[in-house]
Amino acid sequence: MIANTPSIRRSTHRVVVRWKDHAVQVGGGAPVVVQSMTNTDTADALNTALQIKALYLAGSEVVRITVNNDAAAQAVPYIREQLDKMKIPVPIVGDFHYNGHLLLQKYPDCAKALSKYRINPGNVGSSRSRDDNFAAMIAMAIEYDKPVRIGVNWGSLDQGLLARMMDDNGRRAEPWPAEQLMYEALIESALSSAHKAVELGLPADRIVLSCKVSQVQDLIAVYRELSKRSEFPLHLGLTEAGMGTKGIVASTAAMAVLLQEGIGDTIRVSLTPEPGGDRTKEVVVAQEILQSLGLRAFTPQVIACPGCGRTTSTVFQELADQIQTYLRDQMPIWKNTYAGVETLKVAVMGCVVNGPGESKHADIGISLPGTGEAPSAPVFLDGQRSVTLKGDNIAQEFQKIVQRYVEQRYGASRQGTQE
After folding, report:
1. What does the record note about the cofactor (predicted)?
2. What confidence category does residue 371 fall into, taking pLDDT thresholds of 50, 70 and 90?
3. Cβ burial 232-254 (10 Å sphere, 16+ → b, else e)
4. Annotated binding site for [4Fe-4S] cluster
5. Which among 109, 127, 327, 404 could disulfide-bond with 160, CB atoms 3.0 to 4.6 Å apart, if both were Cys?
């Protein structure tokens, strides 16, 4: 038998990130969670809440916000209040650097409104105060019953730890290359901080780890090793991935390898938005990574041919785009009405070579005429030819067919599960 599924997921603790009755499970066999992060000024509570809402509606199951100063910390309870008014239950994570211990102690309402704290052990204070500041943040997590993500970043490694490791490395008969030393420093920082948190009284099942780097092979190497050394859930993400196709390809290349090997419990695609770009794009890419690997299903998938000399018409391209946009726009409504609709497969093909065959393999398929072909478009439902569309309204008619199919197939499925 030829295997065609990802490796068995690694066994981890189960961490629950919640807001009131809404709980998101990370690790412990739960589906891989999609996360995102706002890029608004957190002190602007209304715009931050609106962006969180947009990210949640796009499919982000946890949203992180920057809490970097007094104004941001003071705004957090109001952000949570606005989300509650809009009936957006998504847990929000506070991203702390340098002064998190001060902000959490000074603004208890902020500490309570957040569902999770992100701590970078490399910048919780100077070498003299780092342990005390870290302990203060862990104490707040314990007091308010919050999980934490201990997130190490190679751009802000604990310099004291790195210096000690460099000294130890220099005394080796065969010193490690700088790259290997960096890998070990990232892993050691994450694990030693996690163990310290447990010693301070934070249960192990409230800790998630991450070791962020910005190169694909580095991320794969670090997480492969980190996954061997602990049972903490792991957050995957290529930091500073970049803009546009570069960021998408790099993030996908790194995370797909690890996810295929059963490594990773929550992911974020750190895309640099294009000027005026939509922040929710990173959520869509994260979902598509998981859905392409067969790990989760979020929205119906559209299969479309790339086009060739047989398809000089752009009709199939336009229809594929319209249908894909339509399906994604409908999902906020459909997911609460039609159980299983996210697994729907739709084929929009451009000529007779592969068109009918691909259409038969999909749940719903349409084979549009290519160059020089008869101006007709057969539609297939569950592998059987159903109707042939002609004329100028093929797109509108096909969309109606998709809507009817969803209502008949998944509406019945929903009713059956309720009975």
Report:
1. Binds 1 [4Fe-4S] cluster.
2. confident
3. bbbbbbbbebbeeeebbebbbeb
4. 305, 308, 351, 358
5. 127
User: How many CA atoms, within 13 angstroms, populate the side-chain half-sphere of residue 127?
Assistant: 8
Residues making up the chain, counted from first to last: 419
Residue corresponding to tokens 């390809």: 249
Angle at CA 33, nearest 5°, toward 27 and 36?
A: 135
| CA dihedral sign, ordered 356, 359, 360, 364 | negative
Task: With residue 146 as reference, give the H or E element that holds it.
Answer: none
Q: Which of 187, 232, 319 is nearest to 13 (CA)?
A: 232
* pLDDT for the residue numbered 374: 82
Neighbours of 408 (CB within 10 A): 11
Residue 19, CB half-sphere, CA atoms under 13 Å: how many? 21
What's the confidence (pLDDT) of residue 313?
72
Extract the tokens encoding 185.
């420093």
Distance of alpha carbon 100 from alpha carbon 119, whole angstroms: 8
Residue 7 DSSP class: P
| DSSP run (H or E) holding 349 | strand 345-349
How many angstroms separate the CA atoms of 63 and 93, rounded? 6
What is the C-alpha separation between 328 and 242, in angstroms, rounded? 25
357, amino acid identity? G
DSSP 238: B
- Write out pLDDT tens, residues 7-18: 999 999 999 999
How many separate helices (H) and strands (E) can be counted in the chain? 13, 17
Report the distance separating Cα 273 and Cα 246, nearest Å.
12
Residues 6+ apart with CB under 8 A from 24: 16, 17, 18, 33, 61, 62, 91
Q: Which residues are annotated as a binding site?
A: 305, 308, 351, 358
Helices in 335-371 by DSSP H: which ranges?
Answer: 355-361
Mean pLDDT of 317-333: 90
Model confidence over 194-213: pLDDT tens digits?
A: 999 999 999 999 999 999 99
State how far the Cα of 210 lies from the Cα of 278, in Å rounded to an integer: 26
Consecutive H or E run containing 354:
none
Span 267-318, pLDDT tens digits: 999 999 888 889 999 999 999 999 999 999 999 999 998 988 888 778 888 8
